[in-house]
């Protein structure tokens, strides 16, 4: 069955793409930990390219799945699991392991993307808190006014006593 071979090839390409995305996410995680913003930017561009490729591969897989489903007497909208169940045993041997590998790779990619998002959110939170602290010090100084000019008639001793009291 030619479409089963095409399905196998399309699923193999999809699996390879997920593996590439997983590797890119691992590299991104290392860059986040190292605070290497140049590398993070480069990896982000690479992820965008992988996602564009993934959309194309997904369209191909869906098209081949529809053709295979029709050839097996199923609805063109049949799921991969339904298609695998309807396949002859010799075809299942080739497609079923790919299906399982894709499920696992997709779960791994999802987990790693979630971890990276969490790391980036925490990193940005720390940066934001640091900037807020610095701005608070600069904007509410006892010596400098809001305009940033030196206040000449300040009673620093009284301010210190009030803060200590």
Name some characteristics of this structure.
mainly alpha; 0% strand; 5 helices
Describe this structure in words.
The protein has 165 residues and is mainly alpha-helical. The protein has 5 helices and no strands. It has helices at 2-34, 37-71, 80-86, 89-139, 156-164. Helix 1 (2-34) packs antiparallel against helix 2. The radius of gyration is 28 Å and the shape is elongated.
How do the strands and helices of this protein lay out in sequence?
Elements: H1 2-34, H2 37-71, H3 80-86, H4 89-139, H5 156-164
Helix pairs in contact: 1-2, 1-4, 3-4
Q: Helical segment tally? A: 5
The rounded Rg comes to 28 Å
Structural class: mainly alpha
- CATH class equals Mainly Alpha
Total beta strands: 0
Concise overview:
This protein is mainly alpha-helical.
């Amino acid at each position: 069955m030619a479409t089963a071979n095409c399905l196998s090839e399309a699923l193999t390409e999809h699996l390879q793409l997920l593996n590439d995305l997983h590797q890119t996410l691992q590299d991104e995680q290392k860059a986040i930990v190292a605070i290497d913003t140049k590398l993070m930017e480069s990896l982000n561009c690479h992820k965008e390219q992988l996602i564009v490729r993934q959309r194309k591969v997904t369209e191909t897989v869906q098209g081949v799945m529809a053709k295979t489903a029709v050839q097996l007497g199923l609805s063109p909208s049949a799921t991969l699991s339904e298609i695998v169940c309807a396949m002859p045993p010799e075809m299942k041997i080739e497609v079923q392991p790919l299906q399982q590998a894709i499920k696992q790779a997709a779960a791994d990619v999802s987990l790693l993307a979630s971890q990276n998002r969490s790391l980036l959110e925490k990193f940005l939170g720390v940066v934001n808190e640091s900037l807020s602290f610095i701005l608070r010090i600069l904007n509410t100084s006892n010596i400098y006014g809001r305009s940033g000019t030196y206040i000449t008639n300040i009673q620093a001793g009284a301010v210190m006593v009030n803060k200590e009291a």
